[in-house]
């Protein structure tokens, strides 16, 4: 898979050195994006970036350089039933970036395709949603046969963790209960098979703007 390293980090360093105003973040509005793009580089470096394929070519971007836009077209009516209460009151409005590819919306997911086999214990890493800020709640969930399965959900307390195997590529629904700006803080960790040491990406902040 072709990867292009964004020049944003280089530009940022030059801007800071020059004392000029910061550059504008890249706003992503539709198309394929891996919000959590996990890479491993020997010896022991685990990184967490955004895998932006919205243009058709994969560009790796630092999370701080990206804003994910959730437009009014993402609005849904919250279904009836207690299983859906994490999105709000039944009959109310929530904003959801869908699990399936939908024109005009981001198709948001994650991948560990650059994590090789045999590096981490159980051939897996741990995704952790540490904290968030925003006007409502945020959730990441899948739906099968009309029933949601919550993977991450701020409405019942954080942190939330998920074990993700190496070489995985997954898409899910990303839900928001109110319009406004959300900052969602993720970290990925893994235990090295060779030494048992834990390596981490550090906590990275991801920004979502939900339009009314």
UniProtKB/TrEMBL annotation:
Species of origin: Actinoplanes auranticolor
Keyword Signal: yes
Alphabetic keyword roster: Signal
Name of protein: Surface-anchored protein
Signal peptide: 1-24
Record has Signal as a keyword: yes
Alphabetical list of InterPro entries matching this protein: Surface-anchored_actinobac
